[in-house]
Amino acid sequence: MTTTGGSRPHAGPEEVAPRPSRRVVLGVSGGIAAYKACELLRRFTESGHDVTVVPTAAALEFVGAPTWAALSGKPVSTEVWDGVHEVPHVRIGQSADLVVVAPATADLLARAAHGLADDLLTSTLLTARCPVVLAPAMHTEMWEHPATRANVETLRSRGVVVVEPAEGRLTGADTGKGRLPEPGEIFALATDVLARSTAGAPLQDLAGLAVVVSAGGTREYLDPVRFIGNRSSGLQGLALARAASARGASVTLVAANVSLPDPAGVKVVRVETTAQLRDAVVEASSAADAVVMAAAPADFRPAEHSATKIKKSEDGSSPTLHLEQNPDILAGLAADRPHPGIVVVGFAAETGDAQGTVLEHARAKLARKGCDLLVVNDVSGGAVFGAQDNEAVLLGQDGSAVPVARGSKSALAHAIWDRVVALRALG
Predict the structure, then answer these.
(1) Where is the DNA/pantothenate metabolism flavoprotein C-terminal domain (predicted)?
(2) 327 assigned binding-site residue
C-alpha cells in the first residue's frame, strides 16, 4: 500500500502498534433468533472488537444475561437505572463505533423508527452517532405489513442499514421471508460498514439503486452426471453483492453453482447453465441501475445432450465431443440495454501469450463487449480462483486503466462500486 504526506523508516514487527479495538454495541431484541446472536458476538470478540451487549428484557427470555456476560466478558443490563452515575442510556451510544441489532423484531423497528427511548437499547439507538445496522427477523406477515415497511423506509432514509431478511424456515412449520441471515454474513456486512466508516468513505451512496451481480461458474451438461465447467468459486461475486448491500443498494445476486452462504440482505437467484444465467440476468436487469457480470459463463456447450449416462466403450475408444458456442451474455446486455443510464460492468480472466499481454487482450475484449467497465484479472497459473484476495485493473471506455492493488475481494468490490458511482455521476 502506498501512503502520502511524509515518510518514516520502516518499522520492524516489534514496532508495529496493535490495531485499536473498535467499540461495538450488539443489541438483541426478543425473537426466537436471539440465540444466533451468540455466534455473532463470538465473531466480533474473536476478531478483537470491544463488544457491549444490550439485550431487551424480552431477549433475556430467550438467552439469559449470564450467557451474554460470559461471551462478551462484560456485565449485561437492560435497564437505564443500572449504574446511573455513568449515564449508560447516553454513554453507550455516544462511545460506540458501530451498533448492530440482531435480531431486530418488528417491535424494535417500530420503536426505533418513532424515536422511542423506553429501555436501554432504544436509548442507545437514539444517542448513537455511528453507523447502525439492523438485522430484522420475524414472520413473513409481520415483515410485509405496511406498518413495518413504512418503519423500514423511515429508518433507511435516516442512513440506518436495515438488512433484508432471508427466506427459509421460520418458527414452527412456517417458511418464508423473515429469517435472520446467517451470523457470519451479518458479521461480514457489519464489519464492512465499520471499515468504510473508519476510512471516512460514503456509507450509503448506493441507497435507492437496484443492482444485479452474477457470480460463480456455469455448467453445461454432457449427460445426467457429467458437465463442462470452470474453476470460478463465486467469492468475488458474493463480495460485490455484500458490498453493494452494505452501501444501501437493493441487490439481486444471480448465483451459478455457488456453494457459499447467501450474503445478508441480498436476493439470490440460483442457476446452473449459461442459458439460465442469461435469462435470469436479463430479467433482473430490466429495472436495474447497474449490472456487474462477475460470473464465469462457459463459452461452449455440448451440441448434443445425452439423456442417459454415456458408457465406456468395450474397445477403449473415446466418444467425440461436438461443441457449440454459448451466447455472449455481457456483449448482448451491453448492446441491448434495458434502459438508458444502466451501467454495465464485465470481468475478464486473462493470461498473456504470444499474441499479446494480459492488458492487450483485455482492451480488445472491452472493445468487443461494449461494456462501460472491464475488471481484468491476470489468472496465469490459476491465480484468483478460490483465493480470498484479488488484484485487478479496471479498464474504462474512456481509455482509463485503474490498478487495484492486491487485497481482499471486498476491497476490490468497493473499488468497482466506486467506479460505478463515478460513471453514474457522469451520466
Answers:
(1) 206-422
(2) yes
In a domain, 5, yes or no: no
Point out the catalytic residue in the list 151, 230, 326, 390: 230
What is each CA distance from 64 to 38, 108, 302, 325, in whole angstroms? Answer: 11, 19, 58, 60
Note whether 286 and 416 are same-domain residues. Answer: yes
- 120 among the known binding-site residues? no
Write down the pTM of the prediction: 0.86
The Cα–Cα gap between 254 and 281 comes to 7
| 330 in a labelled binding site | yes
Q: Which domain holds residue 405?
A: 210-305+324-426
Joined together, the cell numbers standing for residue 393 give 485493473
Does residue 315 belong to any structural domain of this protein?
no
Q: Which H or E run contains 254?
A: strand 250-256
Residue 215 β-bridge partners:
255
pLDDT bin (cut points 50, 70, 90) of residue 387 is confident
Q: What is the CATH number of the domain that holds 81?
A: 3.40.50.1950
DSSP-assigned letters across all residues of 26-85: EEE-SSGGGGGHHHHHHHHHHTT-EEEEEE-TTGGGTS-HHHHHHHHTS-----TTTTGG
Looking at residue 357, what DSSP letter applies? -
Active site annotation includes 257: no
Q: What is the mean pLDDT of residues 205-221?
A: 96
Edge-to-edge order in the sheet of strand 132-136: 50-55, 23-28, 98-104, 132-136, 161-162
Chain position carrying cell 471516512:
200
Number of structural domains found in the chain: 2
